[in-house]
Write a structure and sequence with these properties.
The protein is an all-alpha fold. It has helices at residues 3-27, 37-54, 77-81, 84-93, 96-104, 111-142, 149-186.
């Protein structure tokens, strides 16, 4: 099947599921008031699960120029200014790396693992970028009648900062990959 058709079908399915989830959550204000933290938390995790299972089915290549580290990103200073290192420490505290390592293997000087982890940064970044925009649209939908603070706050916490982490980590993975490849070529 053509990639554009697959992407279109996936996008339509995603929007449909989102509308259904939002509708169901809106129909249950007794259990999930839209203004509540619980509504935002549940909605974020339902959609993250949807993307986690549906995005890999597209089998995208992730070879766009967009994913290449820009000159201002290589040292990570811009992301450090936004507090990405604090967020990374938070991920360590909640032991997120245990989950990440189980999916992608521990970080070692293994070229195959490093390439897998670098590709994973691209996959995760795309999913989180889509979710950032998705939740902005959802917040715009609800903002006329509800307080959308928790939707937007969790959008930044669950999706924008993970994009920053992927952009912060990718140059480091690429640098390690190039060092290992250079060493292999010299041997």
């Amino acid at each position: 099947m053509n990639i554009k058709i697959k992407l279109s079908l996936w996008f339509v399915a995603t929007i449909t599921v989102t509308v259904i989830v939002v509708y169901l959550l809106k129909m249950l204000p007794k259990y999930f008031p839209v203004e509540s933290f619980l509504f935002a938390f549940e909605l974020h995790f339902l959609l993250m699960a949807w993307y986690a299972f549906s995005l890999p089915k597209l089998k995208l290549q992730y070879n766009s120029f967009y994913y290449e580290p820009k000159s201002f990103e290589k040292k990570g200073l811009i992301y450090s200014c936004f507090g990405v290192n604090v967020f990374r420490k938070f991920l360590k505290i909640i032991q997120w790396e245990r989950f990440s390592n189980s999916a992608n293997g521990k970080i070692k000087y293994d070229l195959t693992r490093l390439k897998k982890r670098e590709k994973h940064t691209r996959e995760a970044e795309l999913a989180h970028i889509i979710l950032v925009f998705h939740f902005i649209v959802i917040a715009l939908f609800f903002c006329q009648t509800y307080n959308v603070f928790w939707l937007l706050f969790l959008n930044v916490l669950f999706h924008l900062y993970p994009v920053f982490v992927q952009r912060y980590n990718r140059p480091r993975y690429l640098q390690l990959i190039s060092i290992i490849e250079l060493r292999k070529n010299l041997e």
